[in-house]
Amino acid sequence: MASDLETSEQLDEAEKNSYGEPEQENHTSPTDLSELLKEGTKESHDRAENTQFVKDFLKGHINKELFKLATTALYFTYSALEEEMDRNKDHPAFAPLYFPMELHRKEALIKDMEYFYGEGWKDQVQCSEATRTYVERIHYVGQNEPELLVAHAYTRYMGDLSGGQVLKKVAQRALKLPNTGEGTQFYLFENVTNAQQFKQFYRARMNALDLDRKTKDKIVEEANKAFEYNMQVFNELDKIGSSLTEEAQDGEVPVHDGKGDLSKCPYYAAKLGAGEGSGCPFHQAVALLRQPSLQLVLAACVALAAGLVAWYIL
Ligand code: HEM
């Protein structure tokens, strides 16, 4: 069954009729799925809020390259999620939560990707490792355990509806994006007039699903997994962000110890471009010192210098 609220006018009406009254919000029981999810993912939520990437983002410590990668991760995640939601739109364990008009983010993310990468964006981006693991789980759930799909929808859409406006403002300010919305379409739920009311409405829909306690517990467990997948993506972005920051030190040559990936050395990159021997003074010195003949000459020089110093002192 598809959503029986086909237009946003109907949804507005439903929001008003069912959730406009404050007393309605108290009619929950601890065994309602919405309550089990809220309580059961509290710790995960705290941990997600406290990941370095999220904390930095909230402080506006994000650069455009990293934001583009975060948008890419969201694009792949929502493509998978919405593909599986479309697949299960008539499944009784998901149908009442199918709101493509109001919630789906893929089209908005495509606009953001076009804005950041240009028309040929698809050829320029790839799905990161952590995002791929998340995406694979979403597909597995959608195809094998559709009753758990609600966990993935809950974790993302309820979070997006809760923090979207704040995150949008942070991104616009930090990256100097236009306040007309280019690059931040993801955060704009055009067809949700009141996010707070919609969330109440969505909770009521979750609570009306015909589920036994065991399945509800499995959904909470899956939601905790979904939080975990998100944290893995944040941690991956944080790592990439740190290396981007190091490389972006204006005009500075990154300090390195000769270990690690030689191809990341800027002199090495220059050498590849010029097709000559390595121009990096550090790598050249290390290479020279590795030659036994030079080591012998160097040892002789040190011994001679030590002898001269001893002769002078005595
Ligand atoms: C610093 C980052 C974050 C802050 C400040 C934050 C803040 C909040 C707040 C205040 C609410 C309650 C909204 C309400 O009840 O109306 C909320 C709900 C929620 N957030 Fe976050 N959040 C953050 C990050 C995240 C992340 C990273 C995720 C998941 C990937 C997430 C998922 C959720 C979910 C699923 C809910 C709904 C809880 C429920 O009512 O059952 N949040 N968040």
Automatic annotation (TrEMBL):
Q: Kindly report, in one word, the top-level EC class recorded for this enzyme.
A: oxidoreductase
- Tell me which InterPro entries the record gives: Haem_Oase, Haem_Oase-like, Haem_Oase-like_multi-hlx, Haem_oxygenase_CS
Enumerate the residue ranges of region (Disordered): 1-33
Spell out the PROSITE patterns in the cross-references.
HEME_OXYGENASE (PS00593)
Statement: the UniProt record of this protein carries the keyword Iron: yes
> Per the record, where are the segments of Acidic residues compositional bias?
1-12
The alphabetized UniProt keywords are:
Heme, Iron, Membrane, Metal-binding, Oxidoreductase, Repeat, Transmembrane, Transmembrane helix
Superkingdom of the source species: Eukaryota
Query: Does the keyword Transmembrane helix feature in the UniProt annotation?
Result: yes
Its Gene Ontology cellular component terms are: plasma membrane
Q: What's its EC?
A: 1.14.14.18
Family to which this protein belongs: Belongs to the heme oxygenase family.
Under PANTHER family, the record lists: HEME OXYGENASE, HEME OXYGENASE 2
Name the record gives this protein: heme oxygenase (biliverdin-producing)
**Organism source for this protein?**
Ornithorhynchus anatinus
Q: Which gene encodes it?
A: HMOX2
